[in-house]
Design goal:
Chains A, B: It is found in: Membrane. 2 copies of one chain form a homodimer. Chain A is mainly alpha-helical and 81 residues long. Chain A is built from 4 helices and no strands. Chains A and B meet through helix 1, helix 2 and helix 3 of A and helix 1, helix 2 and helix 3 of B.
Chain lengths: 81, 81
């Protein structure tokens, strides 16, 4: 992990915070794609499992947090579609 | 790269296809967070640069494609907000 990859990991992981806060606040999920979040949640879960398998804590941390945030967005999309 | 990481990379990268198609088709970007896509586009661009620096073609390919797809979504968000 060098500086670029740490900044990249923080940005891609934390970018889901404003999206999660927006759907929680507005409950407006019309523009959000169910297909995207269905695929994305499974994808980051698999990344987290891969991180556990190879004992890579950066991979586990970044993808674990992204999984939680994307799951919130997916839950709101399913609830308020 | 093992099977889990390949499937994970395909899912997280290709998940942006249905979201990009949806914004192109509907131009409805109300539910989409500008903050998310601003951070995410810069983040995947940095991942792509990191991939170029360490000569990792999987990293370059997955993040390069994600960068293009997320840029389309960000462009529509800025144009039709």
């Amino acid at each position: 992990m060098n500086t670029i990859s740490v900044v990249a990991a923080c940005l891609t992981t934390l970018s889901f915070v404003p999206q999660a806060l927006q759907v929680i606040k507005t409950k407006d999920t019309n523009g959000i794609s169910l297909g995207m979040y269905s695929m994305f949640v499974i994808g980051v879960l698999l990344w987290t499992i891969h991180g556990i398998n190879i004992n890579d804590y950066a991979l586990i941390g970044a993808n674990g947090i992204t999984f939680l945030l994307a799951s919130i967005i997916l839950t709101y999309k399913l609830k308020y579609k």
